[in-house]
TrEMBL record:
GO molecular function: GTP binding
Name assigned to this protein: Alpha-tubulin
Organism per entry: Naegleria gruberi (Amoeba)
Keyword hit for GTP-binding: yes
GO biological-process terms attached to the record: microtubule-based process
PANTHER family: TUBULIN
InterPro entries assigned: Tub_FtsZ_C, Tubulin, Tubulin/FtsZ_GTPase_sf, Tubulin_C, Tubulin_CS, Tubulin_FtsZ_GTPase
Cellular component GO terms held in the UniProt record: microtubule
Keyword Nucleotide-binding: yes
Similarity comment text for this entry: Belongs to the tubulin family.
Length: 434
């Protein structure tokens, strides 16, 4: 049993990207270091002693990605030697035989077939919690299944009384924007179509980009052969470090999530990750080379931030010096957490036992959104692939509406930047409250 009072967390992994990240994160959670938090992450079997089931649901429209046996056995076998056996419930792995490519196909055909069953599985997991703290999705916002199913599930769950007050959020892989790894037209369309529903129902959308993680692996971690597996390991380190205050202290996921988002319409969170070998220089917390979400984070205005550190060498790092540095940035909310926990072999990739995660609600995401909008417009004007969406049930004006929503989202951020500059000129102390 854990020595903290935080509630349980449930994970839902959607599509190829979401399921692979899920596998990586459960591999990490199954590490012995997380044993003290068993009840938050795992259901204990009443019948079989020492058997724990992950509070997770894996869903994909493509059966090649999820194979019941490999998924359950991999998780089970790896950890036999620890005498604790973790596994994923057979019924919590849902797959089909066709990949969907478009978000609409996934929402309607695959979605219609499975939505009630999925709801039932989620309800069962919720019933098995004493005090559910949050539901966390992992997915790619550009994937057909990743984008379509998250909207379908969120709409289905919206009015369920058994979920009242539960924080629902996501870790979402956004389309890449670098020239070397540009995204497909489908990814852009799927993203634009699903943004509105996600913005409305998720308390926050924690955003990451594969192209930036790739650069981070290459230039910061100096890894040569970078595969999805490598990128997923970085993502799972990022997620678990973010959750450190909830798993190893009394802080609750719902509290941190709501404080990170003081304005409900601005709920895209950017992420940075640092592995520290020597000393932590506070000025580097908002450096570009550590950003996994935005290029140009150093010039952006932060509204709120949550910094989580773990590692044995952090004994010397003074939380107050970081808090002082953050004070100068005039944030609405800041939280600095230092678990000083040794995770040993769990982060070989980083060549360091000290990791800092920075969750940052920043106006910098506006740059990303503007680039997506521009790319969307270029493709949409040429009617590239629109027919495919029409055949799969696109309603009249749906794309135009989704595009407009994205534009108004960008405007919200522009307004905030303008207010901020106005308040700086007039020397107001807390620019966003005035
Ligand atoms: N980080 C990471 N990204 C992935 C992985 N697999 C796919 N992606 C990215 O996810 C996007 C495509 O989404 P998928 O998850 O493959 O699509 P899906 O949700 O399965 O939807 P379908 O179109 O129905 O197959 C692309 O941007 C890929 O680069 C993975 O294992 N890790
Ligand atoms: Mg797929």
């Amino acid at each position: 049993m854990s020595n903290n009072n935080s509630g349980e967390l449930i994970f839902i992994h959607l599509g190829e990207c979401g399921c692979q990240i899920g596998k990586s994160i459960w591999d990490l959670f199954c590490n012995t270091e997380f044993k003290s938090n068993t009840y938050q992450l795992f259901e204990e079997s009443i019948r079989k002693e020492n058997t724990f089931t992950s509070r997770s649901l894996f869903i994909d429209s493509d059966s090649n990605i999820i194979d019941h046996n490999t998924f359950t056995q991999q998780i089970r076998l790896t950890h036999c030697e620890n005498k604790l056996k973790y596994c994923c419930k057979q019924e919590n792995i849902i797959n089909d035989y066709e990949s969907s490519i478009t978000s609409l196909r996934s929402q309607f055909s695959f979605g219609n077939n499975y939505i009630n069953y999925i709801e039932e599985r989620i309800r069962k997991m919720v019933e098995n919690c004493d005090h559910l703290d949050g539901i966390i999705f992992t997915h790619s916002i550009g994937g057909g299944t990743g984008s379509g199913m998250i909207c379908r599930i969120l709409e289905q769950l919206r009015s369920k009384s058994w979920l009242k007050g539960v924080t629902i959020s996501s870790f979402s892989v956004f389309p890449s924007l670098s020239e070397m790894a540009s995204s497909t037209t489908f990814e852009l369309y799927n993203m634009v179509l699903s943004m509105e529903t996600m913005r409305e129902y998720l308390s926050n959308i924690s955003s990451i980009r594969n192209d930036l993680i790739y650069d981070y692996c290459k230039y910061e971690l100096k890894i040569e052969n970078i595969e999805y597996n490598t990128i997923n390991q970085v993502i799972s380190q990022m997620i678990s470090t973010f959750l450190e205050p909830c798993l190893f202290s009394n802080e609750s996921f719902s509290q941190i999530s709501s404080k990170l988002v003081p304005y409900p319409s601005m709920n895209i969170i950017s992420n940075s990750l640092m592995s520290i070998r020597n000393n932590l220089d506070c000025k580097e917390l908002f450096s570009n080379q550590y950003s996994l979400t935005i290029d140009g984070i150093d010039n952006a205005k932060s509204i709120s931030t949550c910094i989580s550190m773990r590692g044995t060498d952090f004994y010397n790092i003074n939380k107050d010096s970081i808090a002082n540095y953050l004070n100068h940035r005039k944030l609405i909310y800041q939280n600095v957490f230092n678990s000083q926990r040794n995770i040993g072999n769990a982060c070989k990739l980083f060549n360091s036992n000290n990791i800092v995660h920075i969750a940052n609600n920043s106006t910098g995401v506006r740059n990303n959104l503007e680039q997506y909008l521009k790319l969307f417009d270029t493709n949409f004007k040429k009617y590239t692939y629109i027919q495919k969406y029409v055949l799969e049930g696109l309603a009249d004006g749906e794309f135009e509406q989704a595009r407009e929503n994205l534009e108004s989202y960008i405007d919200d951020y522009k307004e905030l930047d303008r207010d901020y500059i106005y308040n700086i000129i007039h020397k107001k102390k807390y620019p966003f409250f005035n």
